[in-house]
Amino acid sequence: MTVQQDQERPIHPLVSKYLRLERMPHLACPGCGIGQVVHTTLLACDELGLTPGNTVWVQGVGCSSRITYTLWKGDNIDAHHGRIFAVATGMKLWRPDLNFICFTGDGDCASIGGNHFLHACRRNLDVTALMFNNAIYGMTGGQVAPTSPVGARTMTTPFGNIEDPMDTVAVAIAAGASYAARWRATDFKQLKNSIKKGIQTKGFSFIEILVQCPTQFGRYVLNTGDPTKIIEWYKKNTVTLKKAEKMSPEKRKDKMLIGEFVHRTDRTGVVERYWDLINKIQSEGA
Amino acid sequence: MSKAVKTGKYFVQGDEAIAEGAIAAGCRYYAGYPITPASEISECVAKRMPEVGGVVIQMEDEIASIHSVGGAAVAGAKAMTVSAGPGISLKLEGLGWGIKNEIPYVVVDVQRAGPSNGVATRVGQGDLYTVKYGSAGGNNSIIALSPWSTQEAFDLVIECFNLAEIFRTPVFLLTDETIGHTRELLVIPEERELHIVERVKPTVPPEEFHMYPFDTPNVINYPFPNIGEGYGICVSPYTHTSRGYATTSEKDQDRMATRLVKKITDNLQVLTRVHEEMMEDAEIAIVAYGGDSRPALEAARRAREAGIKMGFLRPIILWPFPDEAIFKVASKVTKILVVELNRDGQLAREVARASKGQAEVYHLGSGGVEPHLPDVVYGEIKKLVEQSPT
Amino acid sequence: MSKEQQAREDTTTMRIRINKEFCKGCGFCVEFCPKNVYELSDELNTKGYQVPDAARPDDCSDCGLCELYCPEFAIVLESSA
């Protein structure tokens, strides 16, 4: 390959190392934040030394999953809508030695998948969940999501959303997750460190990522198809935990909190406990 | 004695026999949710699975159970879940994932009176079509076996696991509350007497391997690599290419649909199992399966004693339906009485279809709760005989 | 290619490389580069997206933000390669 040719189609080293070149460019719309999160995830995997041989990418249904499915060089296990954590439970219990990174969305995780999400947290299932929150159902054309803001005009709320959005980080913590964080897709360094921490934490690691959706959320809710405007909107409507502590309740009211919310290393999970129990029963029976 | 195969004689319910059969077959991942009349299977497995070092878990609902079973199978385990009618309805979407991605596992349906929740503690036979056609989209590869005794429940669940591996498909043990809750003799043989089929692994490197063999749609005993084995497997609920990549092309969709159907229809010689009695000179036949087949056989024997040339056929494999065996019987006799515990006539419809007009097909149905009484069935047989000279 | 563009290519060969076929013209590199290195060019790739150019590569401070902002892995910086 000449320098000229190489310069025309340079392949990013993370793509060479971790992704299937024949699946690039991936399916995301121009400006969608999911590609950024994939990049950040690969940085985290690289720094931790994860390989396609020891790490499985798990998906659900929606943009989160369709875009990430078959990108990874290793195993890609795409579950039915909302069932990602149920499938992951079976896989992790059988192969606790493998790492599982679960890519889910606000609809996949918090709507149809709500029950499995709750119990994955309760069981402290040792996987890392990245929930892409674009506050809309992107893949199906822009319907309201359980994380859409009040007043949002979407394809199924043409007069404005009347329901309050769910705080999925709060739900994860209440249900027992060992690690919970929320970042924006553009919080590259913080998100990378969170993903690394999540992978290294034994137990359910839940990382909610606010991603810009220019095609549906942008156009229908914010009246703009310009992804940079959505990034600006996220910057304006989020505040770090640290800053929020110093703000008045009035000023903090409508802001989304970002940061690391909980990091517990004291709690074991179902996988560890199950195999400990089995070893105990088997050695007693021997 | 092996921990997995508890050789010996027992007096147990069908449910317990199913649990023992699964363990003996090599089932080492089990996920269930409490539902009458199948809960006893979960309770038995909960005690036995830890003894053999497998995984048993009560998931948060029926849906989670089947999806976790799919996940465990993809991860390398022989896996099983159980339920009854309403739970099977919930599991149908998850079943589709197993069918489409050619994942081997076993689902036990302990049928009960329906529709909907029906009578939880009592027998019904309303799920024949559900297990085969209930999962959305058609083009499926379901196999279903049905036992008529505690012994056969043990034997057939092992067969289910074997067929699941051979055909790389979910397989149903379609039983019912009568079999599930009746206590009778179970003989568990020596471990070496059991025939267990193990998972086939690829012999070619990953770049040459196609996860889904669309080029050879009727191939069986096809390899099933699992996660963490270096094959970079791609599994998805969406239609995919032979490598597992998402596709919307008409050609790929048709290749996939053809594979899933032909896998079964081109291998019927391996998938026909019926139980016939008194058929050699039969002029009328009775067809029934599962718990309702025992009063049917009793009624057939009484008919023989009364001089009626009665034959008895019990399908053991329900799906694929034993068309050839039914047609043979229909060509020999003039009337077939189909006995089942539903008013829809599900089994009757299949028998009528397979008979291709060679015999008149009659239906003796009921809502369920109790199996038919032999007297009632015999009464129906007499009515048919009296209808016209036989 | 014009002489100006050629001159730019020569200086960018080893620092900022752009895979124009991966680019979807989102404009993040143009918008978020703190040193205003990028500009949307007149060039369309084969998919019809308007791709950027590293117009002022000498102003680049090697912060690496463009590579991270790009959702398509289309920007490859020398420090990563």
Structure description:
- The complex is a heterotrimer of chains A (about 290), B (about 400) and C (about 80).
- Chain A has one domain: 3-Layer(aba) Sandwich (Rossmann fold), CATH 3.40.50.970.
- Helix content of chain A is about 45%, strand content about 15%.
- Chain A is built from 14 helices and 8 strands.
- An 8-stranded mixed beta sheet of chain A has the order 2-1-3-4-6-5-8-7, with helices on both faces.
- In chain A, helix 4 links the parallel strand 1 and strand 2.
- The mean pLDDT of chain B is about 95.
- In chain B, strands 2, 3, 4, 5, 6, 7, 8 and 14 form an 8-stranded mixed beta sheet that branches. In chain B, strands 11-13-12-15-16 form a 5-stranded mixed beta sheet, sandwiched between helices. A two-stranded antiparallel sheet of chain B has the order 1-9.
- Chain C has one domain: Alpha-Beta Plaits.
- Helices cover about 25% and strands about 20% of the residues of chain C.
- Chain C has 3 helices and 4 strands, in the order αβαββαβ.
- Chain C has a two-stranded antiparallel sheet. In chain C, strands 2-3 form a two-stranded antiparallel ribbon.
- In chain C, a hairpin with a 5-residue loop joins strand 2 and strand 3.
- In chain C, about 40% of the residues are buried.
- Chains in contact: A-B, A-C.
- At the A-C interface, helix 1, helix 2 and helix 3 of A face helix 2 and helix 3 of C.
Output the keywords.
heterotrimer; B: 390 residues; alpha/beta; Rossmann fold; eight-stranded mixed β-sheet; five-stranded mixed β-sheet; 12 helices; 16 strands; 21% strand; globular; C: 81 residues; alpha+beta; Alpha-Beta Plaits; two-stranded antiparallel ribbon; 3 helices; 22% strand
CA(first)-CA(last) distance of chain A: 63 Å
CATH topology of chain A: Rossmann fold
Tally of extended strands of chain C?
Answer: 4
- Biggest sheet strand order of chain A reads 2-1-3-4-6-5-8-7
Give the SSE order of chain A as H and E letters: HHHEHEHEHHEHEHEHHEHHEH
Structural class of chain A: alpha/beta
Oligomerization category of the chains in this entry:
heterotrimer
Radius of gyration of chain C: 12 Å
Cross-sheet strand order for the largest sheet of chain C: 1-4
- Give the helix proportion of chain C (percent range): 10-25%
CATH level-1 class of chain C: Alpha Beta
CATH architecture of chain C: 2-Layer Sandwich
Tell me, briefly, the overall form of chain C.
globular
Counting H and I runs of at least 4 residues, what is the number of helices of chain A?
A: 14
What is the ordering of alpha helices and beta strands of chain C? HEHEEHE
DSSP strand content of chain C: 15-25%
Stretches with pLDDT under 50, minimum 5 residues of chain A:
1-6
